[in-house]
Description:
It is built from eleven helices and ten strands. The longest helix is centred in the middle third of the chain and has 24 residues, at 132-155. The protein is an alpha/beta fold.
Amino acid sequence: MRKLLLAVGLTGCLGVAIAAPKAVVMDFGALDTIDALGGSESVVAIPKQFAPEYLEKYQTDEMLSSGDMFKLDMELINNENPDFIVISGRQGRSAAQLQSIAPVINFSAANDDFLESAKFNIYAVGKAIEKEAEAKAAWDSLNNKIEKSAEKAKASDQTALIIMHNDGNFWISNTSGYATLVHDVLGVKRAETEEVGKGVQADASYLTAKNPDIVYIIDRSAAIGQTPMSQDHFKAADFAEISAVKNDKVVYLTPKLWYLSGKGLQSLDLQTDEIMKAID
């Protein structure tokens, strides 16, 4: 295993070119961060089958597949002899085994300190690809955009609910990482002010009672290649009196961006745009 180059420039003291640090990247937010920082040449393997559309440039014959989001190709990863590996929470159970191959960066973000966690991870990836200054500058720009967006959302009276779809089922996502980003970071007011446990169904009676001005939908089924939800679902008569339906504020968030990515420089930027389009 080669030593991870964190403090050395890309050219040696004698002017001899040094290869960019080599990475296996299994978190798409980390991948979009590396891409935004101009470090794409470092990436040798990703979970290719699940790559979001905005990262389609990495769907090449030359790019190796590290496995799926849970079952990793440990033989390939070991044979590639990477300088570092980036994982998400989905690969957490494999962290110890991966650590025996190369240093591991866990790109997960804590819900109770989302922005600070995201910044820490972005800086860590920037350091790993020798782009520390670029990472700090990019974060400052993104954070400024997030702060301005939050000011606008907090000034609005609009309330919102986040709904997750999976295999024909719809449930409220009010305490998830998605909710943390939308409500706590971007400042969009909650239509549901009580703590809601996992599995509460987003049926017509519930939505009518809460009457959100905006409904944001994350379609897990579509994100993982299964049958997506019907776009006519919320056009049924039972939903007709809900403000979000009446005012055409049912927002279908980009499935893979939200379910399979996030917390990166590009993904946070794109997610902020998708949320703020509905804020008046």
